[in-house]
Amino acid sequence: MKTFRLALAALCATAAATTTTSSGASTIVLGGYPDQIQMVDDVTGTVVDKVTLKSGLPTNLQFSADGKKIYVTTLTTGGIEVLDAASHKVLTSLSLNDPVTRYRFTGGVPDPTGRYFYIVGLRIDKEVDLYRYGKPSFMKVDLKTGEVVKSVEISEEDGPPGYRTRLAIAPDGKTLYVFDKKVLVVDTADFSVTDRIDLEKPEYPGMRDVGLGGGLETLRQPGHYTSVFISEDPYIHNKVFGIARFDLNARSFDFKPIGPAAEQMAGLEVTPDGKDGYTVAVTGKLGAKRCEFWHFDLETNTALDKAEFPCRSRFYFSMSHDGKKLYIYGAGYDIAVYDAKTLKFEQDWELTNDITMAGLLTLP
Questions:
Q1: Which region holds residue 294: left if phi is over 0, alpha if psi is between -120 and 50, else beta?
Q2: Are 49 and 40 in contact (CB under 8 A)?
Q3: Cα dist. 128→122, 125, 132, 135 in Å?
Q4: Could you give the CA distance from residue 343 to residue 340 in angstroms, rounded to a whole number?
Q5: What confidence score (pLDDT) does residue 4 get?
Q6: How far does CA 161 lie from the centroid of its chain?
């Protein structure tokens, strides 16, 4: 199943908005080419601050569990940078690459202490006459020393991971969750896989080949996530979509089918009260391509409304901090703003840097 490269938008952020934004406004955080983080006022759409990243092009943004820090991974030098969400100051900046070693990874997750950062990636070593590619591995990065302090290869049974494999960590930091074709439950002490939930063969009647659409949406309860899923029945191979909920504390997974699936579906964006969810569905290709917002009632797992919007060849989908606006952005300099209640277009915001695939976060 094809998926969009979407933001993992954390709704539990608690950092205060900067004084440079409009009264009552939130701040949107976006990556920008070639090495920028853009802070955008979500009322006026103006860029109110920019942060230059020493380690290069941002590829992923995410909050710490308490919302006080922003973790950024970068492509240019295999970097990880940590920003203070309130002041926008860079607290940590490191690059794993050196003249003879390169690391390739996209995103990751910090441990609860903020000292370590977990990634799934590979190491590339430059030798005299060739580059030697290592196998995909679980890696633990010490953010204080800037070094990979533990690396364990992923077994053939569990790998290789897909592009932008999503990670989550238990509140106690002892368990890492890897969301791909399987959900891997990994012990952070030694990177041993202690459990597997096979999404291609779920334990639900009439379902198989379950795939998660887009990003995992963090709910307000710690350790709770939700996403759109697509599954195929084993008899006539009809594809249906629904809502998947994950309780990492109880290790429980719940799938609620809703209806026939589109060809491509984005991840789920959830309003702050947890009652409404939105996704993007795409059917057709090239000139026959059709893009729609789909709106769900998450309390009853029913579809409420849908509306078409102009497609782009490549784009990302997100939501404002208060759940009242929907954003379509990238590739390019603009954010198209839609009203979440009516699903109608409101305005375009032109930014100062081309938007990267790092995703979108919102500061209150």
A1: beta
A2: no
A3: 20, 10, 10, 20
A4: 5
A5: 29
A6: 15
Q: How far apart are CA 318 and CA 360, in angstroms?
A: 7
Of 84, 90, 26, 18, nearest to 49 by C-alpha is 18
Tell me the one-letter amino acid at 132: R
Write the pLDDT tens digit of every residue in 212-263.
Answer: 444 455 545 666 777 777 776 667 777 778 787 877 777 777 777 887 888 8
Which two tokens mark 82? 């940590």
DSSP string, 320-337: -TTSSEEEEE-SSSEEEE
Q: How far is CA 33 from CA 28, 81, 173, 331, in A?
A: 16, 16, 33, 11
E-only strand ranges, 5-162: 27-32, 36-41, 47-52, 58-63, 69-74, 79-84, 90-95, 101-105, 109-110, 116-126, 131-133, 137-142, 147-153
Cross-strand partners of 40: 28, 47
pLDDT band for position 24 (cuts 50, 70, 90): low
Gyration radius from the chain CA atoms:
20
Cis peptide before 110 (omega within 30 of 0): no
Q: How far is CA 129 from CA 102, 125, 132, 134, 339, in A?
A: 16, 11, 10, 16, 56
Q: Which two tokens stand for residue 256?
A: 């609620």
For residues 319 and 217, what is the distance between their CA atoms, to the nearest angstrom?
Answer: 11
Count CB atoms within 10 A of the CB of residue 334: 16
DSSP for 224-268 reads EEEEEEEEE-TTT--EEEEEEEEETTTTEEEEEEEEEPPSEE---
Q: Tell me the C-alpha distance between 18 and 27, whole Å.
A: 8
Tally of CA atoms within 13 A in the half-sphere of 187 that contains its CB: 6
Top-confidence residue, 50 or 65: 50
Mapping DSSP to helix (H, G, I), strand (E, B) and coil, where does residue 288 land?
Answer: helix
pTM, whole model, 2 decimals?
A: 0.85
Q: Would you call 185 helix, strand, or coil by DSSP? A: strand
